[in-house]
Amino acid sequence: MSAPMLPPQKQKQAADRDLAGRLARGIAALLGPDWHRLHYGVAVSGGPDSMALLWLMTSLLPGQVWAATVDHGLRKGSDDEARMVAGFCAREHIPHSTLAPPAPIIGSQQAAARAERYRLLEQWRAANALDHIVTAHHADDQLETIVMRLNRSSGVGGLAAIRAKNGLILRPLLDWRRSELVEVALDNDLPFVDDPSNSNDRFDRARLRHALRSQTALDPVAAAKSAAWLAEADEALDWAVERLIASWPDASDIAVIRDDGYPPEMFRRIVAQRLRANAPQLVLRGASLDGVIAAMHEGRRAMVGELLIDAVRGLEGTIWRISAAPRRKARK
Question: Is Phosphoprotein given among the entry's keywords (predicted)?
Fold first, then answer.
């Protein structure tokens, strides 16, 4: 016998509960059983995905959710979008802030804007004593990132793509489709806008997004699961490397690099870890890291930023030492 059909409004309430429950399970998987005691800041651009996330979060945790919109001022109309979100939050009694960079964005526009966005959100989170920032990245975003990383010859860490948890940033929607979030926004009459830069072919991601929407061979949800497993593999490799280095007789000397015939991926991580220990701001990966390792194995001095790597005499090919490069004399 089929279940009795609910009246439309009760059907909608049951659907909303199911969606909120799904989000709750996603957050609990990231934070554990005390997730519901915490306070969250939701990053809301005004798009349908972030508006749906805000709606679900406030339905799930009323009184424990704040919202913030970052307006970089990079395009006409972005201030109107921020005001739309602020107006919605005022009507729903959700604390909201509009954040703006103190200076114009320079350099690679999308990369610089992303870095500034997370800096502003972290500053806002700390000022409001919130436990986590939550963003609306979803499975379609994850697939785009994976394909972009494939085109850049990324390894395990790169193909793990967008992490579900990165410090205090949570992304609990990575197994949701964008279409599901649009449906949440439409079903609940949420206001939203489409960022025109999402369809601007001047940007690599926008061109890729357009291509992926017209294909059916790649399943975004399956790709997101693969990325999650790759993230676990990446963490496992880092865990193994930390314990391997700890087993060295001179482990406490951060200038030492050893190679006892380790697999290439393990040795890459050893070199990267030791370089970061000496220069925490240093980021070296991919072809640049492989070039350094090739020089080491060929017995040549390798220079990385302000660091030098030299083989220990008599132990070439097995032990190297990191030292500070001599300062260049200022030109007169």
Answer: no
